[in-house]
Amino acid sequence: MGGNPGSKRVAAAALRLAMSESREDEHQLRRLYAEEGIRTAAVDYGGEFIPAVKKIIERAVVAAKREGVIRESHPEEGAVAGATHEALTQILPKAVGLNIGGKVGIARYHDHISVAVFFGIGLLHLDEVAVGMGHRAAL
């Protein structure tokens, strides 16, 4: 896509990272997006959904700071936490009471911050898939 990446491009980057199947794929995507000026991070997670919500949000904020997606400031941390919470809220109806496993993708270009979650949801051998997306603006 030409021009400056906007919220749609940043959201697509977060989703592609969340859907990456290996660390190698993830690192390749992160290099590609870095060339476009999009800063990214990703976090793997698995476990029971309800107790995991707080841990997933915390890990997303920590990863975003560690990878330079955000600075250590209240508004930027809040933007990632809020976008992550929004994404998790979208998968709540499918995931409540069940185990999840997958990845959180975080992407930022200037004031656009997107967080995508891509999780498999398991119950015995009956697996479901869920995707959630959150977006915030941060200066």
Automatic annotation (TrEMBL):
<dbReference type="Pfam" id="PF09021">
    <property type="entry name" value="HutP"/>
</dbReference>
<dbReference type="InterPro" id="IPR036482">
    <property type="entry name" value="Regulatory_HutP_sf"/>
</dbReference>
<keyword id="KW-0805">Transcription regulation</keyword>
<dbReference type="GO" id="GO:0003723">
    <property type="term" value="F:RNA binding"/>
</dbReference>
<keyword id="KW-0010">Activator</keyword>
<comment type="similarity">
    <text>Belongs to the HutP family.</text>
</comment>
<comment type="function">
    <text>Antiterminator that binds to cis-acting regulatory sequences on the mRNA in the presence of histidine, thereby suppressing transcription termination and activating the hut operon for histidine utilization.</text>
</comment>
<comment type="subunit">
    <text>Homohexamer.</text>
</comment>
<keyword id="KW-0694">RNA-binding</keyword>
<protein>
    <recommendedName>
        <fullName>Hut operon positive regulatory protein</fullName>
    </recommendedName>
</protein>
<dbReference type="InterPro" id="IPR015111">
    <property type="entry name" value="Regulatory_HutP"/>
</dbReference>
<keyword id="KW-0804">Transcription</keyword>
